[in-house]
């Protein structure tokens, strides 16, 4: 697992004792998408893992977090909670995994075939390209102009 941010102590982690965790440090927000490494990006907020607990977890149920668009812009599929605002989008677009809690990750990984992961990557690259090219914003502006009959 790669962790990005100011310091591992903030997350309550002693990375020296955890060989499966690599602390990558902080990067400028514009450079970060090119620095991300891994096979999935975890979009999860909670004060008690693996459950979804606390104000951040509740907020995430209704919010499409910046973290998701960051991972997708970096062409990383995402892992989201089944009750998050993004769950339906992730499933319909085939851009990641949807889990009820983090304890399900091991089983989800075991079920993931190379072919299915390749499909997820292809879908993620398509969405990532749209994000990098500001497609959602451009589309919204065009629709707004059409509604206002400015075209």
Describe this structure in words.
With 151 residues, the chain is an alpha/beta fold. It has a single domain (38-147), classed as 3-Layer(aba) Sandwich (Rossmann fold). Helices cover 42% and strands 11% of the residues. The chain contains 7 helices and 5 strands. It has helices at 32-35, 55-60, 66-73, 87-93, 105-111, 114-132, 135-147, and strands at residues 2-4, 22-25, 41-42, 78-81, 96-99. It has a 3-stranded parallel β-sheet with strand order 3-4-5. Helix 4 (87-93) links the parallel strand 4 and strand 5. The longest helix is centred in the C-terminal third of the chain and has 19 residues, at 114-132. It is globular and about 60 Å long. The mean pLDDT is 82.
């Amino acid at each position: 697992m790669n962790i990005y941010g100011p310091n591992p102590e903030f997350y309550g982690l002693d990375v020296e004792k955890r060989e499966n965790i690599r602390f990558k440090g902080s990067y400028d927000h514009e450079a970060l998408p090119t620095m991300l490494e891994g096979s999935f990006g975890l979009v999860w907020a909670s004060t008690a893992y693996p459950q979804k607990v606390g104000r951040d977890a509740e907020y995430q149920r209704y919010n499409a977090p910046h973290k998701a668009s960051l991972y997708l812009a970096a062409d990383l599929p995402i892992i989201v909670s089944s009750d998050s605002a993004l769950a339906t989008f992730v499933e319909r677009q085939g851009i990641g995994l949807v889990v009820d809690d983090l304890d399900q990750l091991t089983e989800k990984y075991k079920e993931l075939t190379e072919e299915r992961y390749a499909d997820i990557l292809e879908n993620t690259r398509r969405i990532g390209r749209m994000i990098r090219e500001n497609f959602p914003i451009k589309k919204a502006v065009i629709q707004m102009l059409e509604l206002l009959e400015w075209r």
